[in-house]
Amino acid sequence: MTSTARPGGPDPLDLLAVEELLTEEERMVQQTVRRFTADRIRPHLADWFEQGVFPARELAPELGRLGLLGMHLEGYGCAGAGAVAYGAACLELEAADSGLRSFVSVQGSLAMRAIHAFGSEEQKQRWLPGMAAGELIGCFGLTEPDFGSDPGNMRTTARRKGTDWVLSGAKMWITNGSIADVAVVWAQTEDGVRGFLVPRGAAGFTATDVHGKLSLRASVTSELHFDEVLLPGDAVLPGVSGLRGPLSCLNEARYGILWGTVGAARDCYQAALEYAKTRIQFGRPIAAFQLTQEKLVEMALELEKAHLTAWRIGRLKEAGRARAAHISFGKLNNVRAALEIARSARTVLGANGITTAYPVLRHANNLESVLTYEGTSEIHTLVLGEAITGESAYR
């Protein structure tokens, strides 16, 4: 990745040498994922994005062999990696494409994490080893067609029927939904919000893919429907009730995002820098013009600030000191920075920037989804506002 402008000078792609803050093991993880995406993913991304497909079934076992699925969880075939190592992996995954990082995040930080944190031992043994290996795929059903930022008013319900449960309702914008072997679904019950494990093929459970997307095209996005789905009593996650369960999983996914968006930003900046050094106008490379240099400098500044933010939050997380406000700080800042970098990079590339020959507009389109999923900018602003003032402004 290193691209030195002058011999002995700083790396233009990492001006503050943030990667030197990683341990040897963390750098090894990052380099392994970087090689994997270069060899296995990047050659196909333009076609996947244009066709609106993502070969999840094919890729999942390969991601499993690399130890990337549930890599920050302990036991059950999971790697038990530290928070920064997981973040560095997310950075490289999203440097390729947000859809790839989303698949890994949903599998590990949402579906697997819910089972790992709140499931029974039997549920963990049944699902987690296969999910860690990429043999089984999971999804996470919280958002509904009418309720995104306000999950407490979800309409999906589960009622008791003897020792069984009957699940009814719908979930929307569910990554991996139509290909999942198990869906972790959150529903209102007489005891509050509970999580349920709904296996693929359960009678009354259907998943329909969302088409016509202009963002996250190399990703499977679905709507889930539950028409009086009969589930056994042991389908419920016994370890949690209330919104604390799904929201804690969302914080895990948001943590991956605040690292992943650094990767998307770096990829856009790198594309713009390389293009500017080779694109000749008025007899000179456009990198020699002041306005282009200003754009590149602003990109480099925001990239390194976002990278340092991710690293610091990762170390806080490893020390057990990361709070929801820290995660909101990282997601709000880093997605915003990545979007601005993508948009500025597109202007450096001119008309070439709108084609799939370059990754910039693909990243920009993807980041429009990343901006709103796992908590909108408005929600994260209010989380931080409450942390700063002590006053809740949600209602």
Please give the domain count.
3
Question: What helical percentage do the residues reach?
Answer: 40-55%
CATH topology of the largest domain: Butyryl-CoA Dehydrogenase, subunit A, domain 3
Question: What CATH architecture of the largest domain would you give?
Answer: Up-down Bundle
The count of DSSP E runs of length 2 or more, i.e. the number of strands, is 11
User: Globular, elongated, flat, extended or rod-shaped: what is the shape?
Assistant: globular
Mean pLDDT: 95
Major β-sheet, in short? 4 strands, antiparallel
Domain Acyl-CoA dehydrogenase/oxidase N-terminal: 23-135
Domain Acyl-CoA dehydrogenase/oxidase C-terminal: 242-388
Keywords: FAD, Flavoprotein, Oxidoreductase, Transit peptide
Domain Acyl-CoA oxidase/dehydrogenase middle: 139-229
Can you describe this structure?
This is Acyl-CoA dehydrogenase. Belongs to the acyl-CoA dehydrogenase family. GO terms for molecular function: fatty-acyl-CoA binding; flavin adenine dinucleotide binding; glutaryl-CoA dehydrogenase activity. Residues 139-229 form the Acyl-CoA oxidase/dehydrogenase middle domain. There is one protein chain. The chain has 395 residues and is of the alpha+beta class. The protein has 3 domains: 18-132, Butyryl-Coa Dehydrogenase, subunit A, domain 1 (Orthogonal Bundle); 138-235, Beta Barrel (Butyryl-CoA Dehydrogenase, subunit A, domain 2); 244-389, Butyryl-CoA Dehydrogenase, subunit A, domain 3, CATH 1.20.140. The chain has helices spanning 24-51, 56-65, 83-96, 98-118, 121-132, 244-278, 290-318, 324-349, 360-372, 377-389, and strands at residues 74-75, 78-79, 138-141, 157-161, 164-175, 182-189, 192-199, 205-209, 221-231, 280-281, 284-285. The strands form 4 sheets. Strands 4-5-9-8 form a 4-stranded antiparallel β-sheet, with helices on one face. A 3-stranded mixed β-sheet has the order 3-6-7. It has a two-stranded antiparallel ribbon with strand order 1-2. Strand 6 and strand 7 (192-199) form a beta hairpin. The N and C termini lie far apart (47 Å). The mean pLDDT is 95.
